[in-house]
Amino acid sequence: MAEKYSRESIKDLAFALLTKGGLPDDKAEVVAELLTRTDELGVTTHGLSMVPYYLPELASGKMTTSGTHEVVSDRGATMVWDGNYLPGHWLMTQALDLCMERARTHGVACLAMRRSHHIGCLSTLTRIAAEAGFVCMINTSDPSGAWVAPFGGTTPVLTPNPWAVGYPAADHPVLIDTCASITTVSKVREYVNSKRQFDHPWMLDGAGNPTTDPNVVNQTPKGSILPVGGSDHGHKGFAMALTVEMLSQALSGHGRSESVTRWGGNVFLQVMDPEAFAGLDAFTTEVDALNTACRSNPPAPGVRHVRIPGDRAAEMLTRSRTEGISLPDEVWTRVTEAAGVLGVRLPRPISG
Amino acid sequence: MAEKYSRESIKDLAFALLTKGGLPDDKAEVVAELLTRTDELGVTTHGLSMVPYYLPELASGKMTTSGTHEVVSDRGATMVWDGNYLPGHWLMTQALDLCMERARTHGVACLAMRRSHHIGCLSTLTRIAAEAGFVCMINTSDPSGAWVAPFGGTTPVLTPNPWAVGYPAADHPVLIDTCASITTVSKVREYVNSKRQFDHPWMLDGAGNPTTDPNVVNQTPKGSILPVGGSDHGHKGFAMALTVEMLSQALSGHGRSESVTRWGGNVFLQVMDPEAFAGLDAFTTEVDALNTACRSNPPAPGVRHVRIPGDRAAEMLTRSRTEGISLPDEVWTRVTEAAGVLGVRLPRPISG
Fold first, then answer.
1. Which tens digits make up the pLDDT trace of B20-77?
2. What is the tens place of the pLDDT at every residue in A277-296?
3. Cβ separation B299–A154 shorter than 8 A
4. Residue A168 located in a structural domain
5. Chain A contact probe: residue of B78, B205, B292 with most A CBs at under 10 A
6. Is residue A76 part of a domain?
7. Is the Cβ of A249 closer than 8 Å to some Cβ of chain B?
8. Could you tell me which of B51, B87, B260, B329 has the fewest CB atoms within 10 Å of its CB?
9. Cα separation of B48 and B50, whole Å?
């Protein structure tokens, strides 16, 4: 993890792997750029790390490489797209551009998208709009996934259901990027692989008993990840999950009623222009008043200081741009293997 | 609690108290109707129960009784209103009507409102739009309130920050009505008054230690309610709280930067028309597929069956309309006192 790489070398590597894997240059350019930005923000689970997962999807044709999305409906401030399983980063870049343009006109723009492929790190996307002065909200679910049981139930039905909100502030954007379950599928896999238990009962076994054991997802009957609030007040996380699936599946007209099995991402994207409301100045005045009250809050025992979501990303971005990007060994192991298969040369770390 | 009252007698009582308290008939009619519906839905903390809290606000002029809201901005799909501390139920009824009309045209309508007075039970409001076939989301905060500390901090800064989502389904609307903290201010007061402790550490004392003791809110330094997720994963509830305050305060241009001390409600209301997206039929097909998968889910130990938010409200409404409305003794105690002061006669229960 110690070695650092330039953003160019990470992006070039992602681009080379994706194009050798069958993605055309124009789409690979966009995907590689967003994956690199994700690593720069320190979200190393969703940057270059994703490429070895995308390559088999490209090889099997499950990630579409040609054509474009279909416009299912367009009413100006609301849109529905069918993403045709094209690369999610590429689709979302266009969706963001269009929604920002529409929000400038209408004040708000909402786009529900069905059948995108994986859209990657949500705060990499919301940050694009927040940097441009917009409020940006993304809800996403995968109707083929079932990892979370409804509160009070035992059989997994829901995805972790990520949701993100990005908005401007005086210093750097606030970047909320969270989900409706206590932990994520990738975190569960990480704990299974490293034979660790969670510190708290974040899982439910197949009989509905809370447990710290991530292995319950590989047992029969299959266990699940608890919704936010856990066994204590998980009805709140369940409420969030229902909201995310309603926005991303019911509004886009594609979801669990179709018993989907293909890896994909349904998306609900909303962009708002504070200038159409009370103005960007009034907006950032209120955001900064609240952020200041939080950051200057006397910390609880064991806490150094209160952070606003996005503070760590801003620090990581500065560090990445001055010192270079470092990635976990686990990422390099899988990337090295993929590069070997495709005959792509690995970059050299920054000397120093 | 055993005695039942007709909806007419509850509504007449609320109307009589409010008009004697100084609210003009037209506004009192709307407020009394929504408070009665709230009691019919079984949310007895927010129905007739609120009238004794509104009366001193009317008497002191802090709840405005005449005039109307100011339109701060109107871009068709987005609006900002200044509510001038008029009764929240009355303002929200007009806001909902307008947003439903605008959503029919634009697909989506967002209204940020500053300086409303208390808007009451959120699901009573979202239900109006959901029954008419719309998706309805309400976020509300009171910039004069401070009950929840930022995650990692110790000093209360945020309100519990309620948020609600209502949307159509084949049987009855889904009515999510929750908040960004584990419990509410009224629940804390109830536990303080009845000298009870919470079963789990839902509170934080003034030094930042989790506790089951609700009395920490009356100590110095003042304790707080933990955000959803508690000390385990309360960064998720904190993220929700920041989102609710951003939507309701920053977009409306009025919030904590002004050191507000007057009881009020800032609101962010969003209405969407599924017909402008993939259609209402496709919408309810997906909602029902998910609801069925949840309701038929094998229940966890100690659970009778999984419920969808809104199921209990639907049952309570049926019961209230057939058997009458019953209210807790605590509500009758305060209402009886207020009725005595204003010379309003109490209704008789339904004989049975």
1. 999 999 999 999 999 999 999 999 999 999 999 999 999 999 999 999 999 999 999 9
2. 999 999 999 999 999 999 99
3. yes
4. no
5. B78
6. no
7. yes
8. B329
9. 5
